[in-house]
């Protein structure tokens, strides 16, 4: 029996006439004797109490009040409208969609979009760097990702990492279903393609930088073709080794290559030293020759100038000049001789020379004495008479 059925007043009797508009909720009859505490609370009584309070706040058993309905609807509408407020962090961008279609991209700050399900906003971290490790880690290796075939048909165990960030939030949200898996698949494919074109020894020694650069460029080209909105920052090879079974043999080959490179460097060093020394000696010889040439030229010029001066004096006084030249020449010639020349005009008395005058100076032990100096006395030559 419904509680608002007026035809059947129920156990509380009919309401007084003329009081239909101000009907009060029926009162519950007085409760009987209290139940002992051991029987527990009366759940039905609590439920009835809650029902009565709700009926009183919503207009009683006669129906809902219009004002209460309007207030409730307004509160619900306000909460629904305020649900469109959201905050975009400085490192984020919000992609707003209208019924699932792209509408706009919002920057950082307090933003608003129409409440769901009209518009929705998806936040994307556009400045944060993301990293993906391919090939496993030092604790757990993944052979399915790390084992690759090189250009000379050898197998290499290569682990690398890819650092990337979101370049276009719209493309990042709408182009791929799972961007992380897409970046990982493209990175593995690009690395396998680059490694497949290079020999193993080059990858293990001097070709790592080239492999990293080419892999990053190929990844970026593929992601741009997909329109993924992803920018590859760096590709870094963490480890590159031959398979575990042949590591010892490859280490020996690498050591031999290093020894050969050291020998080549030493040879180049010796070559450079010898070449530089030869160039220095050649430059020294050339400079000495130039100095000798300059000296000879200057001496010849000086002799020629001296001859011109002597000739000019000879033309002024030929006799005096001849006498001076004769004396100077005899001085130079007789300066290294032990002969004594006595010149005296009209001398009749003998000239007595000191004992040391005809004695030759002591010669070194290893020098040879001319035969004339062993018993021959020096001959005196008369001086040339002055003209």
Can you describe what's shown?
The chain is α+β, with helices and mostly antiparallel strands. Among the domains are: 1-9 and 44-82, no CATH class; 84-125, no CATH class; 130-242, Band 7 domain (Tetrahydropterin Synthase, Chain A, 2-Layer Sandwich), CATH 3.30.479.30. The chain has 9 helices and 9 strands. The chain has helices at 43-57, 66-82, 143-146, 169-174, 179-195, 200-204, 208-226, 247-316, 318-334, and strands at residues 85-88, 92-98, 101-106, 109-112, 119-125, 130-134, 147-149, 155-166, 230-241. Strands 6, 7, 8 and 9 form a 4-stranded antiparallel sheet that branches. Strands 3-2-5 form a 3-stranded antiparallel sheet. A two-stranded antiparallel ribbon has the order 1-4. A hairpin with a 5-residue loop joins β7 (147-149) and β8. The longest helix has 70 residues, at 247-316.
Helix content: 40-55%
Q: How many helical stretches?
A: 9
What is the general shape? elongated
Q: Kindly identify the CATH topology of the domain at 130-242.
A: Tetrahydropterin Synthase, Chain A
- What string, H for helix and E for strand, traces the elements in order? HHEEEEEEHEEHHHHEHH
CATH architecture of the domain at 130-242: 2-Layer Sandwich
Low-confidence stretches: 29-33, 369-387
Give the mean pLDDT. 78
How many individual β-strands? Answer: 9
**Kindly, what is the distance between the CA atoms of the first and last residues, rounded to a whole number of angstroms?**
182 Å
**Largest sheet data:** 4 strands, antiparallel
Q: Work out the radius of gyration.
A: 61 Å
Q: Pairing-aware structural class of the strands and helices?
A: alpha+beta
Strand content: 15-25%
Superfamily at the CATH H level of the domain at 130-242?
Band 7 domain
């Amino acid at each position: 029996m419904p509680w608002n059925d007026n035809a059947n007043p129920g156990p509380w009797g009919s309401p007084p006439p003329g009081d239909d508009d101000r009907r009060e909720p029926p009162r519950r009859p007085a409760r009987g004797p209290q139940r002992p505490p051991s029987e527990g609370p009366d759940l039905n009584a609590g439920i009835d109490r809650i029902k009565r309070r709700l009926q009183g706040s919503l207009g009683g058993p006669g129906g809902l009040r219009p004002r209460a309905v309007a207030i409730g609807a307004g509160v619900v509408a306000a909460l629904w409208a305020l649900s469109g407020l959201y905050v975009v962090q400085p490192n984020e961008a919000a992609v707003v969609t209208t019924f699932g279609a792209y509408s706009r991209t919002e920057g950082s700050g307090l933003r608003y979009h129409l409440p769901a399900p009209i518009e929705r906003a998806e936040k994307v971290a556009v400045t944060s760097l993301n990293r993906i490790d391919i090939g496993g880690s030092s604790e757990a290796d993944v052979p399915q990702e790390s084992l690759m075939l090189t250009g000379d048909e050898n197998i290499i165990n290569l682990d690398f990492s890819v650092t990337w960030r979101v370049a276009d939030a719209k493309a990042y949200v709408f182009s791929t279903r799972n961007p992380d898996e897409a970046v990982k698949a493209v990175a593995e494919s690009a690395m396998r393609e680059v490694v497949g074109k290079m020999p193993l020894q080059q990858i293990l020694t001097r070709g790592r930088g080239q492999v990293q650069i080419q892999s990053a460029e190929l990844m970026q080209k593929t992601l741009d073709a997909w329109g993924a909105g992803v920018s590859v920052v760096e590709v870094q090879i963490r480890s590159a080794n031959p398979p575990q079974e042949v590591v010892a043999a490859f280490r020996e080959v690498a050591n031999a290559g290093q020894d050969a490179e050291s020998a080549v460097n030493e040879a180049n060093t010796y070559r450079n030293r010898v070449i530089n020394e030869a160039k220095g000696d050649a430059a020294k010889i050339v400079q000495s020759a130039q100095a000798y040439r300059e000296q000879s030229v200057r001496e010849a010029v000086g002799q020629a100038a001296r001859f011109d001066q002597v000739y000019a004096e000879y033309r002024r006084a030929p006799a005096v000049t001849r006498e001076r030249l004769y004396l100077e020449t005899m001085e130079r010639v007789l300066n290294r001789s032990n002969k004594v020349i006595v010149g005296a005009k009209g001398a009749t008395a003998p000239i007595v020379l000191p004992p040391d005058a005809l004695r030759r100076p002591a010669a070194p032990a290893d020098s040879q004495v001319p035969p004339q100096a062993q018993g021959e006395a020096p001959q005196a030559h008369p001086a040339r008479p002055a003209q």
